[in-house]
Design a protein that fits this description.
By secondary structure, the chain is an alpha/beta fold. The chain contains 9 helices and 7 strands. Helix 1 crosses helix 2 and helix 5 packs across helix 9.
């Protein structure tokens, strides 16, 4: 559920939401990325646009020395607390377009639904390559927009049905990265041995009837939703709740398929 336009989103207000809702959705991408870069105990890893630190903790559990960075101080504060038990791991406020760390100072760099969520994603990847040693690995991941199988796309479909001719978000709001485009970008930045992987997951809504209360915080920040009046917001909330509830299984929970991809490359020696 990463949101693309940092000028329109107050990420500081989303800390609890990210940890409770977003982290379980994006962590499968992160675990696959850690496998692709063959993370080993003792490796120095920078987690770029790390949010509340779920992936950083996963890497720390595998024995890595992690620096988790994010632009939002409240996200960093939460990541700092979560990394507290792990020696040699920390979090810091930092702009991913200008990482305040030396060249070639990490064994690996990773960003999950992070740098690729912003229009400056290529700048972020360039910085990740810069700070990774020759022979080290870089991995990035995002939702598979070609399949339109992230939670926000269900909201977009419901919005279009409810308000024909209107959009939940404008064209270009989400940078149009495909796995091939990311692979080309990493090659252009000096990476070789490019590896890609698809990641299938499930968005589980435990109480479909309360989805807008429990999971609707990011949807309310989309431009189309914010432009609605109170009556139309209620119409959408009801329609979206019905759509999610319609996918409930025998256990009463809705299980909605998601798809993402990971691209990893090796920083070429010399």
């Amino acid at each position: 559920m990463s949101l693309a336009n940092e000028n329109q989103v107050d990420f500081g207000s989303l800390v609890a939401f990210y940890e409770r809702i977003v982290d379980p959705l994006t962590l499968p991408m992160g675990r696959r990325a850690l496998d692709l870069i063959s993370l080993s105990a003792g490796d120095a890893l920078i987690d770029v646009a790390a949010g509340t630190g779920a992936l950083a903790v996963e890497a720390a559990e595998r024995g890595a020395k992690v620096l988790a960075i994010d632009l939002e101080p409240k996200m960093v504060a939460r990541a700092t607390a979560r990394l507290g038990p792990y020696a040699g791991c920390e979090a810091a406020v930092m702009n991913f377009e200008a990482l305040d760390v030396p060249d070639a100072s990490f064994d690996a760099a990773i960003s999950i639904a992070g740098v690729l969520s912003f229009a400056t994603g290529e700048d972020g990847m360039a910085e990740m390559v810069r700070v990774t040693r020759p022979g080290g690995r870089v991995a990035v991941a995002t939702w598979d927009q070609e399949d339109a199988a992230a939670p926000q796309y269900l909201a977009r479909e419901v919005f279009a049905r409810t308000f024909p001719g209107r959009e939940l978000w404008p064209e270009g709001f989400f940078p149009a990265w495909t796995r091939d485009a990311v692979a080309r970008a990493l090659r252009a930045l000096g990476c070789d041995d490019i590896r890609t992987a698809g990641v299938e997951g499930v968005w589980t809504v435990e109480t479909p009837g309360k989805v807008m209360t429990e999971s609707g915080q990011s949807i309310r920040m989309f431009p189309g939703y914010r432009a609605l009046g109170d009556a139309d917001r209620s119409r959408f909330d009801e329609a979206f709740t019905a759509a999610v509830a319609g996918q409930a299984g025998a256990d009463g929970m809705a299980h909605i398929a998601t798809r993402a991809f990971v691209v990893a490359g090796r920083v070429a020696p010399g």
